[in-house]
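Handout, section B. The chain below has 217 residues.
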Amino acid sequence: MTNPPPGYGYPSDQNPYDKQPPPAQSGYGVPQGPYDPQPGAGHPQAGHPQGTPGYPPPGYPQTGPGYPQAGPGYPPPGSPALATPADRFLARLIDFGVLLIPLIVIQLTVTAAAGSILSAVVGAVVVFGYEAVMMLTQGQQSVGKKAMKLRVVSALHGGRPSDNDLWARSAVYGLPQALYCIGSLFSLVNVLSLLWDKPLQQCFHDKAAKTVVVKEA
């Protein structure tokens, strides 16, 4: 009788040629290709570090360190650096210089004609109008922000905020000054609030518009 070929007719557990490797179990030391993970639960989108999703968008300038360490609610490493309080203060000081002459004219004319309350209203409208026009037409930069190389961007994705967000930001910054005395106090607390807001150093008008101010390279 002709002997069968090696392994022929033997149970698979006794024939080394019939043994198959056990199926790989994903996630237990088996490397996966760069395109294997599927977005979903437990798999963040490729290129979007955990933290604030998608921030900054592809092509947005990277300026290295400056943002706080990564963690829940923090922008991912490599995002544009947040503007320092000193830079923002100097930018506002420059903007105040730009508005100084119009505001003096308002004080001298409107106050003399109609009183301090109407003067405060007109002054608030001027500040609001200046802020809104600059944010909407000059790349989210006022004169002061251009001088200090600052820019207003969305805290959600790092790009240009929507027009509605920029209108809201300008309104919260400028219009409360229409309230005589109380409005000035609110504005002071507003601009100082970035000193204790963490981690994004947002003023009230930033929070209303979901924006942050970053330092350009």
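Note. Helices lie at 85-114, 116-137, 143-148, 163-174, 182-192, 204-209. Compare this with the example in section A.
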